[in-house]
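Design a sequence for this backbone.
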């Protein structure tokens, strides 16, 4: 951990920005032995550390199968491979692009369902309305680490005989009914890219209790080759190598600390910004705990005095980075313009949220003092803006 002097103080001294994200990683000494062994043995991929990491994840997530992949994106692409090509998959648009890309890479048709304005997660009622005779699956997302309405989605999937998947990219460290995210639905895919809570460099982990789906992803990450070079389908090379797997094993032991720090920083943000007019927060699932992979504020421009976009620029000028996740929403990205020319998905909540959201820095290298400084920055900017407006009147 960083000394708790505060990155901000040093940042303001030297006029350097605090980082928006910085992963909690093992030290060189923590991995030196394993790295040396891997390099000297030459077993750099498909070795014992991948197996060790997958077993550790099975234990941690409480699922029968974990298949690690080169990324969450490739894991999702391979998981959705079990769906009939041409069928429809119900997805949120308030998510990272990769959620929806994974459908398109399988020749599936993404059908966007609006999200809930409080939880930011896909709204089960909108999912219900989006079901047609062509629907084969629902792909939910635990946005920012806030568990989706898993029970409602499970019930809808059961009633309509649909598969249910989760993009659990933000899922490490989050819980639903006291259990880690990963065992819900037919499969969940977690991410361990550098902005997430468990970091393997790049990487993903598909978690499932379904033997068939596990096998599909295992064969799929190996070109579609079941072992005899008689490929069953056109797969990918989506393997996770040994060095990445070692990082995963070590990072998993740091997860408790990573998530505890984030929850504490989130509580500080909430207490210091909770009273500021025009700022509201994501409502966490009452049955769950968020990983706070991201900490978001929603700006009401009229009450706050400026829009999220302006606040972002003003904070930037003070050395405070922030990100407009998720803006633009997926359905408004160029990649989906052809699709939305044919039909307007009408996602008022997603459009509104996407316009007004701003994610503030949250990571284990940030101190309480940093967060206090960021909150102070937000409050001062609001006051200055309102004073300026009044002076104009
Ligand atoms: C990060 C992220 C992904 C992609 O994960 P990779 O491991 O980088 O492929 C997918 N979905 C969401 C919601 C993400 O935040």
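Sequence:
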């Amino acid at each position: 951990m960083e000394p708790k002097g505060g990155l901000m103080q040093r940042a303001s001294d030297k006029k350097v920005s605090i980082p928006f994200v910085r992963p909690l990683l093992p030290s060189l000494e923590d991995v030196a032995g394993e790295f040396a062994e891997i390099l000297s043995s030459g077993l750099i991929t498909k070795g014992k550390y991948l197996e060790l990491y997958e077993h550790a994840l099975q234990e941690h997530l409480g699922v029968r199968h974990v298949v690690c992949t080169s990324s969450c994106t490739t894991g999702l692409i391979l998981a959705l491979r079990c769906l009939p090509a041409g069928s429809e998959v119900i997805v949120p648009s308030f998510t990272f692009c990769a959620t929806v890309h994974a459908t398109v890479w399988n020749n599936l048709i993404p059908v966007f369902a609006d999200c809930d304005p409080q939880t930011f997660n896909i709204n089960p009622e909108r999912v219900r309305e989006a079901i047609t005779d062509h629907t084969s699956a629902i792909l939910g997302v635990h946005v920012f680490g806030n568990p989706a309405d898993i029970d409602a989605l499970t019930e809808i999937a059961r009633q309509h005989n649909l598969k249910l998947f989760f993009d659990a990219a933000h899922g490490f460290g989050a819980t639903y009914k006291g259990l880690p995210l990963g065992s819900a639905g037919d499969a969940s895919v977690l991410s361990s890219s550098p902005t997430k809570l468990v970091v393997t460099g790049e990487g993903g982990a598909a978690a499932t209790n379904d033997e068939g789906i596990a096998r599909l992803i295992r064969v799929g990450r190996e070109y579609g080759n079941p072992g005899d070079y008689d490929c069953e389908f056109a797969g990918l090379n989506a393997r996770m190598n040994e060095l990445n797997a070692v990082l995963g094993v070590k990072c998993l032991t740091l997860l408790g600390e990573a998530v505890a720090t984030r929850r504490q920083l989130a509580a500080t943000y909430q207490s210091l910004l909770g009273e500021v007019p025009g700022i509201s927060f994501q409502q966490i699932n009452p049955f769950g705990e968020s990983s706070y992979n991201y900490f978001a504020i929603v700006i009401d421009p009229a009450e706050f005095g400026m829009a999220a976009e302006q606040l972002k620029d003003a904070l930037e000028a003070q050395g405070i980075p922030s990100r407009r996740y998720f803006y633009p929403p997926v359905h408004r990205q160029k990649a989906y313009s052809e699709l939305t020319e044919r039909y307007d998905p009408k996602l008022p909540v997603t459009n509104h949220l996407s316009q007004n959201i701003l994610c503030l820095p949250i990571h284990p290298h940030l101190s309480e003092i940093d967060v206090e400084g960021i909150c102070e920055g937000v409050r001062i900017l609001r006051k200055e803006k309102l004073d300026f407006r009044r002076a104009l009147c």
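The first strand starts at residue 65 and ends at 69.
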